[in-house]
Amino acid sequence: MNYIHTSDIHNLNSPNTILPILFEIFKPKSILDVGCGIGTWLKSSSNLGVLDILGIDGEYVNRDLLLINEESFRGFDLNFEFNLNRQFDLILCLEVAEHLSESSSNVLINSLVKHSNVILFSAAIPGQGGQNHLNEQWPVYWVEKFSKHGFVFLDIIRPIIWDNPQIDFWYKQNIFLVVKESHELAAKFKSSSLSLVHPELYDAKNQIYEKRIAFLERQLKVHPLKRWIKSLIQN
Questions:
Q1: Does the keyword Zinc apply (predicted)?
Q2: Are 37 and 135 in contact (CB under 8 A)?
């Protein structure tokens, strides 16, 4: 899998807004970011005082663009299961799962649950679209996979950030806290995994369809067959 990271998408706006909200609920001392890209979320985490950080992503990541020390990054193909032989207080896996083939989905989940009991998880829904999306799924798909390992979904971030213009819509739409059933957070918050489509995505798709319809209407106006039919009617 190859992926091109751009500054207009991969910036600190979303992590700088979301992580302080999460840290009010649960403050980790160590974080593993699976599919970390250039390290935006880890950079924000370190700015908030988390010093034990590690990011994993494909070898295609441009090291010159990393916002974290290269020592805190490991290149690895996430289509394969990995074991770091340690635990982290928190795992981040944000808008990553859809970039892997469906056959690798269980592999990814196995790798995540092996390293932490608390996972901030976000994955693209069907029709969301994006660069190299291979496996867009509704939340229930991921709920079922995590539940086999004794994890539940907590929908405690989305209601807080839903209308925040500083945050990318895909996080506002897809982000959940996934925790082990035995974790104190699972007892504190009700499990929920409602499938939602954010208005920003809905509006963006509508604009695309409206442009396509307008294009087709223009084509029909100049199409030879239509001109011929129109001439027959007039005659």
A1: no
A2: no
Q: Which domain holds residue 162?
A: 13-188
- Residues of the chain with pLDDT > 90, as a percent, come to 71
**pLDDT at 32 > cutoff 80:** yes
The residue among 144 and 191 whose pLDDT is bigger is: 144
Determine contact, residues 105/97, Cβ cutoff 8 Å.
yes
Q: Is the distance from CB of 184 to CB of 190 less than 8 angstroms?
A: no
Question: Which string of b and e fits 169-202 if b means at least 16 CB within 10 Å?
Answer: bbbbbbbbbbbbeebebbeeeebebeeeebeebe
Q: How many domains does the chain have?
A: 2
Bridge partners for 30 per DSSP:
52
Q: Residues near 9 by Cβ (< 8 Å), separated by ≥ 6? A: 168
Same-domain check for residues 125 and 204: no
Cα–Cα nearest to 100, from 16, 25, 209, 1: 1
* Residues 92 and 179 reside in one and the same domain: yes
For the whole model, what pTM was predicted?
0.82
Identify the helix (H) or strand (E) that includes residue 81. none
Three-state secondary structure call for residue 71: helix
Say yes or no to pLDDT of 84 above 90: yes
Indicate whether 70 and 146 sit together in one domain. yes
- CATH code of the domain covering residue 21: 3.40.50.150
